[in-house]
Amino acid sequence: MNSMKQTLERFKIVRLIVSIYRLKAVRALVPLVIIAFVYLEGQHELKRVHLGLILRELKHVPAGAILQMMGAALLSVAVMSSYDYLIRRHFRLELGHWSTFRYSWIANTFNNLIGFAGLAGVGLRTLLYKKSGVPASVLTPAIVFLSPLMITGLSLLSWGNILGLLPAAALLHEHRWLVFAVWGMALYLPFFIIVQRSALFAKWINRGQNRTPWLTVGASIGASLLEWLFAGITFWTIGSHLIGSIDFVAVFSIYVIAAIAGILSMAPGGIGAFDLIALLGLTQLGYRSDQAMAVLVIFRLFYYLIPWLIGLVLAALEIGLQGKKSADRNNAGIEPQLNVWQKIWGWPGQYTFLSDLGVWALGKLVFASGIILLLSAATPELLYRLRITEDLLSLPVMRISHHLSVLIGFMLILLSRGISLRVRRAYIWTSALLFAGAVFTFTKGFDYEEAVFLLVVAFILWISRARFYRISVPVSRQNTVWWLALTSFIALVYYLLGNYVHHGFLRHLPHGVEPEWLHRHSNVAVTAAGGLVFSWLLLTMMITLRPHRSVDELFADRDMERLSRFLGEHTGNSLTHMLFLGDKSFYWAQDGRVLFAFARARDKLVVLGDPLGPRSLINDGISEFRQAADLYGLAVVFYQATPDFLPIYHEQGYHFFKLGEEAMVPLADFTLSGKKNADLRNVKSRFEREGYVFEVAEAPHPETLLEELRRVSEEWLNGRSEKGYSLGWFKPAYLQLAPIALLRSKEGDVLAFASMAPGYDRGETASIDLMRHRNKTPNGTMDYLFIRLLEWAKEQGSVRFNLGNAPLSSVGHNSGALREEKVAHLVFVRGGHWYGFAGLRRYKEKFSPLWEPRYLAYPATLTLSILTLDLVRLVSRHPEAKEDQA
């Protein structure tokens, strides 16, 4: 019995450890811990690295060698497409050869640079293949099949280390922990083969077909072996050009062990762990630390960064190409045939849509352009180029070009955010700055490589110009602080790099060579600070001095007379009366026949209730409103949506979260008779016996009554601030629009009141709006007020009475509920200390209501947790305060 208990306890411990590891913060610590450990192992070699010497090594690489190294790196990345061709054949995917290659390049280069355990590649492949029409039933097993095979080649090469075919005994002997890493990676290969040949794999991944053929298993391992083999060849090629004649087997063995360390670190691109192990291995072979570090820098540049930039270009154009093809298919037989020159002339305009991946890639290209400009300005140019520039331009022109390059670099970094958000003005400014940056980087030191890259990015932006349609986007304090911190950090790195590299480079120049232009780095701190400050000033001026056409146009309409006329022709709902509070703006869609009443919460327009108007126009009206909001980077959210409109929201691509339920009392069935209602009968009898008086005062109300009600309201608030948006508050002009139910003592003083809210449905629904009472009132005061209100509404001919909402009621109590709904259920059950959620529902149950669900409908692009915080902030802010424009 004790042994069984101990076994269960150990199982609980294992579950706890797994749960802790699933936390993002803990997963992020794993790469940091491994990198820190590797750093401690190799800190002696790192201290011997001199950045100036590294720069000197890189500056003396011949152009022919650069082309060879670049060709080897690009070929290595191209070889990785064998993975996609493998799953294309095995799962019979209907994709062309060129499309397969493009998708492979995009996914693999992103995965190489930023992938965390392959997740980046998986996500991008899923997105690209789905957009090409590959069904999810085929795509999911294909991705699952592909993910585990990518390191099988490295596992096979690990056996080469173990068997002595790839000797690295010195490195393994000095750092014995690497032995465990190599053995762990080696054992992955037999595990992979066993799984691939298992019956479960055949059932789940091969869709019930036979087990994976040996030929496919071999092809999988072969594809992975090709990737790692060519990557190692690229590493050796770069080393042979930068260091000289080096032994292929020795360098390749070091590369394999460094790659294993990089994989185990789970850091993006294995950065840190891979580099330090490779540095240790190369220095053990007798090469200088500066030479070894130069090899690593070039390898990172040619194998990771440049292919990724090409992948960004392909990603930016990919969806446009698909959009063009779709348009061509849709218009087949309708459009006249174009000749070759007409196609070339009209080619850029045929790209009519770019996905989020595309604009994200464009934004990162612009960001990379800014970084490249700053790196170019922070490092000295080649001497022969400086002499050419000297013959053409004067020193002041070169210095001005240098400072302007830094300023443009910071501006491009800041504008990259606007490019990702598709802002038209950001596109115009970015295009101009890219051209200007190309000119200044050329005139500061004949850096034609950077100039060509900037012009290519400008050309891609021009091709994609139709995607930049937004007038503006919200600028929040959080984003501003984040970008200020980021650019300040970049300025600091620029200063440190420019200052350190400059002095190190000067110390290792040939004797007697010290060009005057290199002294410009003596004021690198001024350049960094000036670029940072002036870029932010220019950006502030761009935002401040923009045309007056802004998001305020959406908030301009609060025409109450037009609202009254509209409600005279169309049916409203239980929330419609709150539109007269004046804290919401109106958007009139479909030529004024559909109304949206909304308030702004940061970058969201929160519509109160469902749209009003003919149901046949609602869907098109929502599309119209969303397009208008999207021009300013705003999302449309529907708060307190009813079940009747959920199919329309679903068609718009919205997600749903249940907010609670609304209590509707069918007045035809309401009665105080029966054993169940004995308590309510007793309350009514007691209040009538003690002389309390109920009355309903019709509007307009005298000032004396409103002043007395104000005192009751202030006593009820007891210093608390009013809430707004979906709740009524004490506003005399608003209270004048509807009847008010009063409960008076026998002396005639008002003890409690409740304002009524017309349902704007021809009198079928009566609703309570604002309810307040004095602090010292008899028990059952609100019960009696509700009883008399229900009886009064029934006498008036109303069909139902709305008792209001019970927040979080019946949310997340089913086992299949969403995680967020289960959390809401816990708040409903346990949250009585802060808000009596469960108690409020029990109170309203006294009156035997029917419960109708209410939902939050929101776009899939929004994060529910952040949206919830914005809604809480919207309801909680003071109703008379100016709307938050952050």
Notes on the structure:
By secondary structure, the chain is of the alpha+beta class. The protein contains 35 helices and eleven strands. A hairpin with a 6-residue loop joins strand 8 and strand 9 (765-773). The radius of gyration is 35 Å and the shape is elongated. Mean pLDDT is 75; it is low at 1-28, 41-50, 320-355, 382-389, 504-522, 828-836 and 882-886.
TL;DR of this structure?
Belongs to the LPG synthase family. The chain is α+β, with helices and mostly antiparallel strands and 886 residues long.
Topology:
Blueprint: H1 2-22, H2 24-47, H3 51-59, H4 63-79, H5 82-90, H6 97-114, H7 119-131, H8 136-146, H9 152-163, H10 169-174, H11 177-186, H12 188-196, H13 199-204, H14 214-242, H15 248-265, H16 273-284, H17 289-330, H18 340-346, H19 356-378, H20 383-392, H21 395-420, H22 424-443, H23 448-463, H24 477-507, H25 524-544, H26 560-569, E1 585-589, E2 594-601, E3 604-608, H27 615-630, E4 635-641, H28 646-651, E5 654-666, H29 678-689, E6 693-697, H30 703-717, H31 732-735, E7 740-744, E8 750-758, E9 765-773, H32 781-795, E10 800-807, H33 819-830, H34 837-845, E11 850-859, H35 864-876
Parallel strand pairs: 3-4, 9-10
Antiparallel strand pairs: 1-2, 2-3, 4-11, 5-10, 5-11, 6-7, 7-8, 8-9
Helix pairs in contact: 2-16, 3-17, 3-24, 4-14, 4-17, 5-6, 5-8, 5-14, 6-7, 6-17, 7-8, 9-11, 9-14, 9-15, 11-15, 14-15, 14-17, 15-16, 16-17, 17-19, 19-21, 19-22, 19-23, 19-24, 21-22, 21-25, 22-23, 24-25, 29-32
Q: Which structural class matches the secondary elements?
A: alpha+beta
Portion in beta strands: 5-15%
Poorly predicted regions: 1-28, 41-50, 320-355, 382-389, 504-522, 828-836, 882-886
Percent of residues in helices = 55-70%
Q: What is the approximate shape?
A: elongated
What's the helix count? 35
Question: Widest sheet: strand order?
Answer: 1-2-3-4-11-5-10-9-8-7-6
Number of strands: 11
Mean pLDDT level: 75
Largest sheet: 11 strands, mixed
First CA to last CA: what distance? 62 Å
Rg (C-alpha, Å): 35 Å
Count of the separate structural domains = 4
GO molecular function: phosphatidylglycerol lysyltransferase activity
Membrane topology: Multi-pass membrane protein
Protein name: Phosphatidylglycerol lysyltransferase
Pfam families: LPG_synthase_C (PF09924), LPG_synthase_TM (PF03706)
